[in-house]
Design a protein that fits this description.
Helix content: 55-70%
Number of helices: 17
Strand content: 5-15%
């Protein structure tokens, strides 16, 4: 709240304001404030251009303040002061640097006013009255400045972020369209080695109300990169609830470890689809196309899984446009295993795991955490129900079982 001023104080303040905007007094004020700021904030001290911008900011703030010192408080953020906030944002500085500037200035401004009022003679208003008035106006001005500068800082950060995301998204889209591009230049701009092996993923949230969906998805993307012993992934926001990302590795990665993320994916209500790893720009494009195809299958699944790998649903992707024919094939190939009975579901899971492990009983047992004789018993039961060995018609049987695993048994 502004301190009321007597007529004598206002008269003295008008004289002070006229003198304060002169080059000499302004320079003294800037020197006193900015010397302390530079001394306390290494980020500014190490950047000569930023120091110059600081001087311009302090100079403009001082002149705006003293010009309004004897009138009703009407704050307007000077352009050079806004430039300081924008410059810090563009340099990637934390908001804390900006706040430190004003904390350091706070002390120096009070010290400057103290020096001014210490020189008052008997013809001037009482020292305490003048200091109290000047300081109350200065605090109000600085508080308004900090609020406006925080808003300016974050607006600039958001524009920079949106601009960087837009440039990155357009470059990725150009690569996906097959537009001619300098691979080395694109790799540098994206900070992503396009000549390495590319593993493409799509992550999306199934919770439309999740306020922190972006943070969740980016966390998962970084976890995937760590699982593949890779640096940070290249990420692109595809929509409000889904992200595309690529992980680059010097050699072909094994995606099996991604399954370890299923617990976190379930907890955060995030789904993940992946393409098959392939080298170079062609792998970048092909893997993304496969991840999109796997995502399409997952989105239409009755029983969606947290992780959908293209390699597991490739055949389903190929027949996705013929649902009626596919269901007839499923009933024809594995009709006896199509029921909703728990035991039949167990048999289907065992056979699929057996196929995924190249018909290796020991590996199947280890993955299912059962004895190998249990696996052999289930496989024998499945063959009896099917009416032929699992080595016959393997491709169609596997396709049918993968269909059931995602979409449930078709109606008999």
């Amino acid at each position: 709240m502004a301190v009321p001023a007597s007529p004598d104080l206002l008269a003295w303040m008008r004289g002070f304001a006229e003198e304060a905007v002169t080059d000499e007094v302004t320079a003294a004020f800037v020197r006193k404030v900015d010397d302390r700021v530079v001394d306390q904030i290494p980020t500014i001290a190490a950047d000569p251009m930023l120091t110059e911008i600081l001087h311009g900011s302090t100079r403009s703030q001082w002149r705006s303040f003293v010009t309004n010192l004897t009138s009703e408080h009407q704050f307007a953020l000077p352009g050079p002061a806004a430039d300081l906030a924008r410059s810090l944002a563009r340099r990637g500085a934390d908001l804390g640097v900006l706040l430190k500037v004003y904390r350091a200035a706070h002390h120096s401004v009070f010290a400057f006013f103290t020096e001014v009022t210490d020189t008052l003679d008997e013809s001037a208003p009482p020292r305490d009255e003048a200091l109290k008035y000047m300081w109350s106006r200065a605090e109000q001005w600085m508080n308004d400045s900090v609020e406006a500068l925080i808003e300016t800082f974050y607006e600039e950060r958001q524009q920079l972020l949106e601009g960087a995301l837009l440039r990155r998204t357009r470059l990725v889209e150009d690569i996906l369209r097959g537009s001619p591009a300098n691979i080395d230049q694109a790799s540098n701009e994206l900070a992503h080695p396009l000549t390495h092996w590319q593993s493409a993923f799509i992550a999306w949230t199934v919770d439309p109300d999740a306020a922190d969906a972006t943070n969740r998805v980016l966390h998962i993307a970084n976890r995937v990169a760590r699982e593949l012993n890779a640096p940070r992934p290249l990420t692109v926001m595809a929509g409000s609830r889904d992200w595309w990302f690529w992980v680059a590795t010097p050699s072909r990665p094994e995606l099996g470890s991604i399954a370890d993320l299923e617990a976190d994916l379930d907890k955060w209500q995030i789904h993940l689809s992946s393409g098959s790893p392939s080298p170079g720009v062609q792998g970048f494009r092909a893997g993304h196309a496969e991840a999109k195809a796997a995502q399409k299958v997952s989105l239409s699944a009755v029983i969606p899984r947290a992780v959908t790998e293209f390699a597991d649903v490739e055949l389903l992707c190929l027949v996705a446009d013929s649902p009626e024919m596919t269901q007839r094939m499923v009933l024809r190939e594995v009709g006896g295993l199509c029921g909703t009975d728990k035991n039949l579901a167990q048999l289907r899971d065992t056979v699929l795991t057996y196929f995924s492990n190249s018909h290796n009983v020991e590996a199947t047992a280890e993955q299912l955490f059962v004895h190998k004789n249990t696996v052999r018993y289930r496989l024998t039961r499945a063959e009896k129900i099917l009416g032929h060995p699992l080595t016959d018609r393997t491709a169609k049987v596997e396709l049918a079982l993968r269909y059931i695993a995602l979409f449930g048994p078709p109606k008999l």
